[in-house]
Design a protein that fits this description.
Blueprint lengths: L5 H9 L1 E5 L4 H14 L3 E5 L5 H15 L4 E5 L4 H9 L5 E3 L4 H10 L3 E5 L2 H9 L4 E4 L2 H12 L7 E4 L7 H10 L4 E3 L6 H6 L2 H23 L1
Parallel strand pairs: 1-2, 1-8, 2-3, 4-5, 5-6, 6-7
Helix pairs in contact: 2-3, 2-10, 4-5, 7-8, 8-10
Amino acid sequence: MGTNKPVLMNIQSAGILPLYYCHSQTVSLDIARVLYAAGIRAIEYTNRGAAALENFTAMKETLTTELPGLHLGIGTVKSPEEAEEYIKAGADFIVAPIVNPAVAALAKDADIPWIPGCMTPTEIYQAQQLGAAVIKLFPANILKPEFLRSIMALFIGQKFIPTGGVEIEESNIREWYRAGVVAVGMGSKLITEETMIHGNYEALAGRTAQALQIVRKIKNEMNR
């Protein structure tokens, strides 16, 4: 599960990983199209509703040819049974809120990235031993950049993505990047409930462009 996989490179290149679930298959597809048009090439669809598997399967079938180069992953995968279903449906990567060795093994066998959620140094170490090239810091709004800064020396070279409460604000994103992340996960702050209910895709496109611009600015500053 090396970091050279195209999906991980796409996540790191964009600097943000959008994640969402919507019960409507049509809206789920439309949101993916808006994100893609804005420049996103990796999306996490979350396994958080009764229609998740059906929607994900339809999205893979439709978007694989419609949106070339898009990597569609599945999030909130806690069990091997869930992992098997989504791997069969064509998931390009698996994101989890927990460290489950059985899920890690299935992702390894399928040769797709596994991005587990961790909250402690022990969990991070366990995830590393199980082959996680990238680790999700979750929940980010509880851990905060200070946590990452305090442990980075223990995990030199490890790639992190904070998820949960990351704001589309330059100061917030800058603090995470200064702490050492390679990207930030963005859910409801980016893809709002209002967007899903009322289909305000123009606003979503604007927020996505804003987030990408902020990340580019921060990366440029750090590379000087």
